[in-house]
Design brief:
Blueprint: H1 6-20, H2 23-26, E1 163-167, H3 174-185, E2 189-190, E3 201-204, H4 210-217, E4 227-230, H5 233-240, H6 269-273, H7 284-287, E5 294-297, E6 303-306, H8 315-336, H9 377-384, H10 404-417, H11 423-437, H12 446-451, H13 457-469, H14 473-480, H15 482-491, H16 498-506, H17 522-529, H18 531-534, E7 538-539, H19 540-557, E8 562-565, H20 567-571, E9 575-576, E10 579-585, H21 590-608, E11 611-616, E12 625-630, E13 646-654, H22 658-666, H23 669-681, E14 685-686, E15 691-693, E16 708-711, H24 715-722
Parallel strand pairs: 1-2, 1-3, 3-4, 10-13
Antiparallel strand pairs: 5-6, 7-9, 8-10, 11-12, 12-13, 14-15, 15-16
Helix pairs in contact: 5-8, 10-11, 10-13, 15-16, 19-21, 22-24
The protein binds deoxyuridine-5'-triphosphate (DUT) and magnesium ion (MG).
It binds three DNA strands through helix 11, helix 13, helix 16, helix 23 and strand 14.
DNA sequence: TTAGCCGGTTA
DNA sequence: TAACCG
DNA sequence: CTAA
């Protein structure tokens, strides 16, 4: 009765084996010398408060400036589908949608071991080993640290061969994350990108409306071979066997009821064209009108065939199952989140938060025409004001800020959104903190906070909570959530981002030592080995010392070359995350400067013992940057103290691009993004090399033409050309 | 309801 | 190409 | 999370 492909079967047994092993047994190779993470000398991990900067905010989406984008014109007809899921037909397609029966299985399934994560968007099912799902997740107060692995693998693979797409398709919400993980554990594949060809089910959150879903997916219609179901589908199926997607219970709001016999093959003409071939998705046409009826297994394993439109017979029973399941899920959630209220990312928690979540839709309604001729100063002024870069962002660096405590807490809070959760929120927190920083009166109430600007209802409330209760519940929750703690830990290893951190967590890793079981990339290796060093901020004076070493070396190796310390140092912060150096020489081509720097300076400093690791070396034609690590000579320090490994970056710049490079390399990142967005609103483009005009952009603000250079040499010139009053470096602290 | 910088390197 | 970094 |  089971329909396993050979691959699946093989994997199943591999998983079985893995699950029985203990961690130590599983260790692939006898990584002999266990790397000592804690060095002899006591270094402190100073998560410096005042000048908080998170890890770099994640790329795609980030919050900041207001939208002047209403002004930008757009193609409303744009239709983009991520192609990443498209695969060649030759690859095995593990799909047997309609027929899978649930295994007969234990009544009481353990939900404890979540965390297996199939790499869904990667094409092959069998690709990755599954981790030992042997760690219990949260054992708040309960004695059992480790559950018995063997009994936990008896999960019926009821979703085997099914490909789920969730809406929203992320794990920001704990309940949804739970559903996704549960589904995966039972054989489902989580499609991270939309793919008409592969996805079998769309699982929508209960509050998602059908119309919103369509626009979210950029579809006019859901292909008939894909079932749209509400979130209940997952728990129900787990509790009572694979459910019929057509049940009214799984209908989402605003969904039209499909007639029982529809022609199966119609695919959305438009959307699929770009996706060319697809492995003719399990002949939907062959299954005919019965496509939507499905075999449903009762909880004792007896299969019953139900007519799609007639599920009344089963109603009461599945309700019971449903209830039972809900209990189980509720329990999981409770175990996972000891403080179920105020979870780190709960959609219902925060004001107007993320129903639509992130996710780049294409466009909604067609935009109004641009109307921004740069000439019309008056009108320009208005919308421009909303950009951060238009304002003085003085740090209030010196004197003690009355809001220091609040700032500290909020900054800490922001850390937890760093990469892991919402990049939007992270940016908002940073901006709010910056607002507080330049405020010199103590903020105690919501209303005061709201007046600051860049502080909205949500953070305002938190500020009030902080000053009145001296704490922030949400932060305490995060801190006491082992998942958050572990993810945060991993995110701080250089070379580990959100994806890997979650993968590691899912594999049961909780400490840096656990990572020794993993094959790390060379950069990650360094990141782990020098975890503490890299996460320790660098006092200004030490930054200068590193800078001096480089400058002195240049004197020797390449006289006439000039090095300048950039980044947070140039902004005047009292400590820095790394050392950023710009290297240039007058009247000299970049290629020349680059050659000298990368083939002479770097090797020289490496021999000296100053440069101790290289993390990224120029690769592209005209590569201009080098990332690595440096170490001050012990002789230069007070005796007894050991130098720390520091992150150091070189950027090679020709004279003609000095202005843009200064601008870029001075930051901060939020300021830069603000400037760049402003540029794009003016049909221009700003990068580390210059400001360009007449840039043509496509649908997603995607750049279609390079544009022509306006200014690159003078930093001030760029401000002028953009119509932004010049801001000295210390006024560019926006986050 | 919507959008949120831009580019280079690694594997 | 996706993930990561600045 | 924020501002438009
Ligand atoms: O996403 C980013 C990251 C960095 N930068 C620029 C601005 C930043 O100032 C400079 C150097 O980056 P770094 O990560 O060193 O930031 P920093 O401002 O120097 O702060 P830190 O003290 O953490 O080094 O690169 C951006 O434009 N966008
Ligand atoms: Mg820096």
């Amino acid at each position: 009765m089971f329909d396993f492909s050979p691959d699946d079967k093989k994997k199943f047994y591999e998983d079985l084996e893995n699950l029985d092993k203990t961690d130590s047994e599983r260790e692939d190779e006898g990584h002999l010398e266990s790397i000592r993470l804690l060095r002899g000398s006591p270094t402190h991990l100073s998560t410096s408060r005042g000048s908080f900067t998170g890890r770099r905010v994640a790329r795609t989406l980030t919050a900041f400036d207001q939208n002047a984008h209403r002004a930008i014109s757009r193609e409303s007809s744009s239709r983009h589908f991520p192609l990443s899921l498209i695969r060649s037909q030759s690859e095995p397609q593990p799909m047997q949608p309609q027929i899978s029966l649930s295994h007969p299985r234990e009544k009481s399934v353990s939900f404890r071991h979540l965390g297996l994560k199939k790499s869904a968007s990667s094409s092959s099912l069998s690709s990755r080993e599954m981790a030992p799902a042997s760690k219990s997740i949260h054992e708040k107060g309960k004695g059992k640290k480790r559950s018995r692995p063997t009994q936990e693998i008896q999960l019926a693979q009821i979703f085997q061969g099914l490909v789920f797409f969730f809406v929203p398709n992320n794990t920001h919400n704990n309940a949804r994350r739970m559903r996704i993980e549960l589904a995966q554990k039972r054989g489902a594949i989580w499609a991270k990108e939309w793919s008409t060809a592969q996805i079998t089910h769309v699982i929508a959150d209960k509050d998602v409306k059908y119309a919103w879903l369509l626009s979210h997916l950029n579809l006019t219609e859901i292909p008939s071979n894909i079932s749209v179901v509400s979130e209940h589908f997952i728990p129900d199926s787990i509790a009572a066997g694979l459910q019929d997607p057509a049940r009214p219970r799984y209908r989402i709001e605003g969904q039209v009821v499909q007639p029982p016999n529809r022609t199966a093959v119609e695919l959305p003409a438009e959307s699929d064209r770009s996706l060319q071939v697809k492995p003719a998705k399990k002949d939907v046409s062959l299954t005919g009108p019965d496509t939507q009826s499905t075999v449903v297994a009762s909880s004792i394993g007896t299969a019953v065939l139900h007519d799609a439109l007639n599920d009344s017979t089963r109603a009461s029973k599945s309700n019971r199952n449903q209830a039972q399941y809900n209990d189980e899920l509720a329990q999981v959630i409770k175990e996972t989140k000891p403080f179920a209220h105020l979870p780190l990312s709960d959609e219902s928690d925060d004001a107007g938060a993320d129903q639509p979540d992130d996710l780049d839709h294409e466009e909604g309604p067609p935009r109004k025409a641009p109307r921004l001729d740069i000439a019309s100063e008056a009108s320009v002024d208005k919308w421009q004001k909303s950009f951060q870069c238009m304002h003085k962002n003085e740090g209030n660096l010196e004197r003690q800020n009355p809001n220091a405590y609040t700032i500290g807490i909020l900054s800490e809070m922001a850390q937890y959104y760093d990469n892991g959760h919402d990049d939007f929120r992270l940016m908002s927190y940073r901006r709010a903190v910056a607002s507080l920083q330049k405020c010199d009166t103590l903020i105690t109430t919501k209303d005061q906070a709201l007046k600051l600007g860049r502080v909205g209802p949500s953070i305002a409330e938190k500020i009030e909570e902080i000053v009145t209760t001296k704490g922030l519940r949400k932060l305490e929750n995060a801190k006491s959530d082992p998942r958050e703690v572990a993810i945060q830990l991993f995110l701080r290893v250089y070379g580990c981002g959100k994806a890997l951190a979650e993968e590691w967590y899912a594999k049961g890793y909780r400490t840096l030592e656990d990572l020794e079981k993993e094959k790390l990339t060379s950069n990650q290796r360094i990141g782990v080995d020098h975890y503490e060093d890299f996460n320790t901020r660098i006092p200004r004076a030490e930054v200068e010392a590193h800078g001096k070493v480089v400058m002195d070396a240049l004197e020797v190796v390449a006289p006439g070359y000039k090095a300048t310390i950039m980044g947070s140092y140039r902004r005047g912060t009292k400590d820095c995350g790394d050392i950023d150096m710009l290297i240039t020489k007058e009247n000299t081509a970049v290629e020349t400067v680059a050659t000298v720097v990368f083939e002479q300076l770097v090797p020289y400093l490496t021999e000296t013992g100053f440069l101790v690791a290289s993390l990224a070396t120029p690769h592209a034609n005209g590569g201009t940057k080098w990332h690595g690590a440096s170490l001050l000579p012990a002789s230069s320090l007070p005796s007894g103290s050991k130098p720390l490994w520091r992150r150091i970056d070189f950027l090679v710049v020709p004279e003609s691009e000095m202005g843009a490079a200064l601008l870029y390399f001075t930051g901060d990142d939020i300021f830069n993004r603000s400037m760049r967005l402003l540029a794009s609103k003016k049909k221009m483009r700003l990068n580390q090399r210059g400001l360009y005009k007449d840039v043509i952009r496509g649908p997603n603000r995607e750049r279609l033409t390079e544009g022509t250079l306006v200014e690159g040499k003078s930093e001030q010139g760029i401000f002028e050309a953009l119509g932004v009053p010049y801001r000295p470096p210390h006024h560019r602290i926006c986050g």
